[in-house]
Design a protein that fits this description.
9-stranded antiparallel beta sheet; alpha+beta; D-amino Acid Aminotransferase, Chain A, domain 1; 12 helices; 5-stranded parallel beta sheet; Rossmann fold; Dna Ligase, domain 1
Length: 384
């Protein structure tokens, strides 16, 4: 299907920063796009051919939107899957496929999927209510510490908590949840795997993620990961096994734990462009956003090797600030060679809201990491 300079339309559910960055490629290639997002000020609304305001979780809104496109993809998992299933039945190409998305949306079904397909992951139990969790603690079935995950609606660090005491349990949402073993790990890794409908598959290098100590958000992503070749090969094998089991179309970001014993465990996955792949815009021959567009349009996949080492640092709203955004000292980081900021276009900041990212490219990964720390300490996302 020819999408170049034609009236054929690629639909995107979600118009946040990931949707905006997908549009870098569609604009470059003159691919017509249509975006659905609940916010009229969504970052992607300035760069698409047609923008529709609507609820991504509403069946009718998603269905009506999907009837007006030729291929439909996502930039966020929180969408109405029933509408996607109906659209797929009626001939609309939906990538990732609705059945893949349905499994991934629920943390419990995602973990059961790994168990069924013999994919290594941390041990877990499912609970319907928070009272059941409390009862399991009283009976000694559960012991602190452990990881709690909301079965649904968790995203970008929300809906996940490490539980150390009964007091921590009282702060949790009461609905269905997943309780996981707290795995002592050496590093958190991520690998993005890409697949097109014809079956061609490729993957990006293994990256290393460093998390904020309290916000449960990624602060830094380092490419390549500072691990042994043996550990990298094992991580790639597990990521490929996971991707093959899902049989997804498009990108699949596979988040992993590398244990002190050298085991690799799947934490969870995201079937879309991912924060851990932002480095690829500057550092890779083919960035993750172009690769996703290639995949869903069933075009040959691009080269995923890196041209240079890179570190990505997330720009998030500073604690204590909510309102119209100001990027304090951005001029200072622009004076540093190899520092490339990306501002997402969100007009309002709040604590820990992702407002942008900065990529640092340098021949030496440790030097790039030090530069990233300098950027983090210099640039503040505050209010007027």
């Amino acid at each position: 299907m020819d999408f170049f300079s034609t009236t054929k339309t690629l639909g995107i559910l979600g118009g946040g920063q990931l949707g905006k960055m997908l549009l870098y490629t569609t604009q470059k290639w003159d691919v017509k796009t249509k975006v659905l997002d609940p916010s009229e000020n969504a970052p992607a609304q300035l760069a698409c051919d047609e923008f529709v305001v609507g609820d991504l979780t509403d069946f009718q809104a998603v269905y009506d939107f999907g009837k007006g496109v030729d291929i439909l993809t996502i930039e966020i998992e929180k969408v109405n899957v029933e509408a996607l299933e109906q659209l797929e039945k009626e001939g609309v190409k939906v990538y990732p496929q609705p059945h893949v998305l349905k499994t991934i949306q629920n943390k419990c079904s995602q973990k059961q999927f790994y168990k069924k397909h013999h994919i290594p992951t941390a041990s877990f139990e499912e609970y319907e209510t928070l009272d059941q969790v409390k009862d399991a603690v009283i009976k000694g079935v559960l012991s602190f510490p452990f990881v709690w995950k909301s079965a649904e609606m968790g995203y970008d660090g929300y809906g996940v908590a490490i539980i150390h005491s009964n007091k921590d349990i009282e702060q949790l949402n009461p609905g269905p949840c997943l309780i996981e073993e707290l795995v002592p790990f050496e590093k958190e890794l991520s690998i993005i795997v890409c697949r097109r409908p014809q079956g061609e598959t490729t993957h990006y290098p293994v990256v290393e993620s460093e998390f904020h100590p309290t916000a449960n958000q990624v602060e830094y992503v380092l490419c390549p990961a500072r691990i042994s070749d043996q550990a990298a090969e094992k991580a790639i094998a597990v990521a490929q096994q996971t991707a093959a089991a899902y049989g997804h179309i498009g990108l699949l970001a596979v988040e992993l734990f590398l244990t002190h014993e050298g085991e690799v465990l799947v934490n969870e996955v995201a079937p879309r462009p991912h924060n851990s792949g932002h480095f690829s815009i500057e550092a890779s021959y083919t960035c993750q956003f172009e690769q996703h567009v290639r995949a869903v349009l069933d075009l040959p996949l691009g080269k995923t090797e890196s041209k240079v080492t890179a570190v990505m640092v997330n720009l998030v709203g500073k604690e204590g600030y909510s309102g119209p955004v100001v990027y304090k000292n951005i001029d200072q980081i622009l004076a540093i060679e190899g520092v490339i900021p990306h501002i997402y276009g969100k007009k309002e900041t709040r604590p820990f809201r992702k407002m942008g990212h900065v990529t640092i490219i340098h021949p030496k990964i440790d030097t790039a990491r030090k530069m990233a720390q300098q950027v983090k300490e210099t640039l503040s996302v505050i209010t007027k």
